[in-house]
Every structure is written in structure tokens, then in C-alpha cells.
Amino acid sequence: MAKKLDGETYKGTAISVPISEDGQVAAYVWPLRILTVQRDTGAMTMGGPTIGVDVGMEEVLRFDCHGKPGHWHRGGYDRLERPGNSHVDFPDQIEDVENQVTWSLDTIKSEFSSLLIEATHEEAASKVNPEMLSDAIDQIKHQLSGANDLRQAAIDGNVINLY
Q1: Do 53 and 25 touch, CB atoms closer than 8 A?
Q2: Would you list the DSSP string of the chain?
Q3: Residues 2 and 29 sit within 8 Å (Cβ to Cβ)
Q4: What is the pLDDT of residues 54-73, one digit of tens each?
Q5: Mind listing the pLDDT tens digit for each residue in 90-129?
Q6: What is this structure's pTM?
């Protein structure tokens, strides 16, 4: 699951759902992850749901659904050490949180095997149970549906000011 870093705030209840029989591959969601970034104008805060995939204790994929500054990480997030080494922008026109969440879950479902192989986790890719993956995606959607107001409340309270 996403490592809690200094300066980050987490809201809502996170879940981690196994997607392999041995439990070593899991999908997770943090309903609201808020982080501080430095911009030319000074420190800004952004946030939204963070969805990811772990293999063992390693975070391999991460989707930061944060609106316009949203992005995702491929190739082995933890293994590549610096977030910039795995950073990928969402496709053009996918700028709102709802579409980023949908795109992220669709990408996990349809490209899971190739993304794990790219991150040098071939064995884990072969262990993913498609039914467990589908169930995990449903659980993540359900968890997020109960946390819809968290991000807007953070924006309204100026806790998130980059969106």
C-alpha cells in the first residue's frame, strides 16, 4: 500500500484486497491522499484517491487521481526509488478525478499482466486470479462511492489548493 510520507495526509478508510490466491498480489485504495508539492509560486497541495497494486511489500503500480495534476506510476514504483522515474501523465482529456479513477481501474483490469511484467514481476502476473481482480475492482469502487465528499470538503476548506 502507498507508503505514508512526511507531509502527506490521508482521509477515509483504506482497503487492500488480495488478487492472487497466495495473497501476495493485492490492489488497494486510499480514498483521499493529500500531498504538498513545490511550484514556482510556492507550496501547493493536491489530492484525491490513490489506487495501486502491491506485490509482497513492494508498491508496483500507483494511480494518483488528483484532477489536473493527476498522474500514475508504472514500471515498479518502489523499485525505481524516485517518483519521477516512474511518473506518467494520464492520457489527454482525462483531467477530472472520476474519469481518472475509471481509466485507472480499466487499465488495471485490462493491462495488469503486461504492467506487472514490465515491472519485473512475471511470477506475480501469472498468479493473478481474474475473478479476484474483478472482485477487488468492485470493492474499490464501493469504497470510493462512500467517500465522494472527502475531496470536495478538502477543496472547500482550502486543504487542497491545486486541482
Answers
A1: yes
A2: -PPP-TT-EEES--EEEE-BTTS-EEEEEEEEEEEEEEETTEEEEEEEEEEEEEETTEEEEEEE--STT-EEE-S-TTTT-SGGGTEEEPPTT--SHHHHHHHHHHHHHHHHHHHHHHTT-HHHHHHB-HHHHHHHHHHHHHHHHTTHHHHHHHHHTTS----
A3: no
A4: 999 899 999 999 999 999 99
A5: 999 999 999 999 999 999 999 999 999 999 999 999 999 9
A6: 0.92
